[in-house]
Fold:
Amino acid sequence: MQRPLRVLITGGTGFIGKRLARHLLDQPTLALEGEAPREIGKITLLDAFPADDLPDDPRLDVRIGEIDDSALLEELTREVDLVWHLAAVVSSAAEADFDLGMRVNLHGLLALLEVLRAQPKPARLVYASGFAVFGGPLPEVVVDDTLPTPVSSYGTQKAIGEMLVNDYSRRGFVDGRTLRLPTIAVRPGKPNKAASTFVSSIIREPLVGERAVCPVTPETPVYITSPRRVLDAMLHAMSLDGERLGQSRTIPLPGLTVTIAEMVAALESVAGPAARELIEWHADAEIQRIVASWPSRVEAPRAAELGFHADGDIESIIRAHVEDEGITLTGDQ
Amino acid sequence: MQRPLRVLITGGTGFIGKRLARHLLDQPTLALEGEAPREIGKITLLDAFPADDLPDDPRLDVRIGEIDDSALLEELTREVDLVWHLAAVVSSAAEADFDLGMRVNLHGLLALLEVLRAQPKPARLVYASGFAVFGGPLPEVVVDDTLPTPVSSYGTQKAIGEMLVNDYSRRGFVDGRTLRLPTIAVRPGKPNKAASTFVSSIIREPLVGERAVCPVTPETPVYITSPRRVLDAMLHAMSLDGERLGQSRTIPLPGLTVTIAEMVAALESVAGPAARELIEWHADAEIQRIVASWPSRVEAPRAAELGFHADGDIESIIRAHVEDEGITLTGDQ
Structure:
């Protein structure tokens, strides 16, 4: 009988980290491909920010600290089995503060990889990247081997991270796998400093009777994935036997291509015309430019072969958000 | 009248660094595109190793130190105008010693970029990368936007470096340009720890009556460039106005595709059948695998548009080597 699994989630008090932690605490065991299911012994959440809505569970340990603090990382990765590396400074924030982005997105990952390398047994590592690694001129359809040409520091740092995870894995220092994530919508909580934050705002805020600003035109297509699919992908990526991934550990994920107009129509269909009226259209040329530089049409055959799935339609995504967040729609009252 | 140019060459006591320094000392001025020709005021060569064959010139300053020594770099880059960053731990060495490769190839570049970023005026930077950024499955012909899939730590570090130079340039911290170099042949001096070192050895050693080992089959194609073309490319890349390069600062260079058999035939044509007999054929599966993982058929239209040229044929390359190194051929005696 193997000992219970030890888990580290960086960026652990972010919304994906918390969902992952709750899921792992709720399940009695975790099954890694080719292994017998194992108990979860300990889950450490490392983040720069605390959270007040985490379960009170003796297996859960929340640590506030910096992701490039090697001494702290060394302590937190002692005999760790599974690491989800979600800590990141998002796109607009990394653009506004170059030093901060480099410190967290590049040097934080390097520090983590180095302490993991020093472990006696290579830990499994899931690294969160995104389609923001693109940004330069794009082919009409982005495929698995399209060249990343980032034109943001965030995208650059993520593209570099993908390569580092590949090389550390190739050398057997970690057993890494990188998920290149579509824009996540509907993201719960407050707007953040990602250039894509409006993609969630225009659904999330009207659903609770608040105004939201849309800085792009209705025709703008976006490539999205729901929080539920992200959670599935995080768990599935960790479960996969590293041998199946081969030389490239980067998995561009399947997503759903929708226009903003389609999102708004689905919002109306779920929450009525009043919700739609809460969206204010204020064009922002810079945001429009950045969003247009991201892929909207993507084919991801490799992920499909590995068993990853996209969302079916935007209306289901919105209904799932309503359910997950326990939102009471005006029409329901 | 602008003040004389200040130049830093890292890896400056390597053979390209030395040629570059000699060239700059020999020319009274250097013309950067769109600027009046300027005098060379000072050339600093930074390297971990000394050289005993450098010209005695008051403009030349040779400094022995480490490329990740930020304090030293800060001193050497004060008011620097032009930087050729050639310092590198080559492929097999970076594979044998991961820490050394990361320290020099990644952290050395990061340290250099950071001190250059702190300068009041963005310096022009030429960064030497190579086709070793490839290594995974390749299309039949590698083109400018083929996805790098390094399967060596050296290739990974170089591919990361290309992206860092892009992002630091995009932000205006440096005015960078990256040359993705073919295998250099005929490289003068001694064999080094590059997996490709034999490509030079099989010509260089027999030309002076010494034995050389060829670890790959005669049919193996290689993609090469001569030291003369590299020197031209280093100077031309520096002269180009950064605005012409646009978003991607990476310039994959044109080269010459030849098989080892063609190289050996050209050697015989230049130096007679006795030279050919000095090559010993000892197959090395690992070297064969690595060399086969590098592109041999390459199209580089972007570099051609920017005015970079490939060598015409292998025999001319060998004759140029004989001339540059002042070799007396047996047949001439």
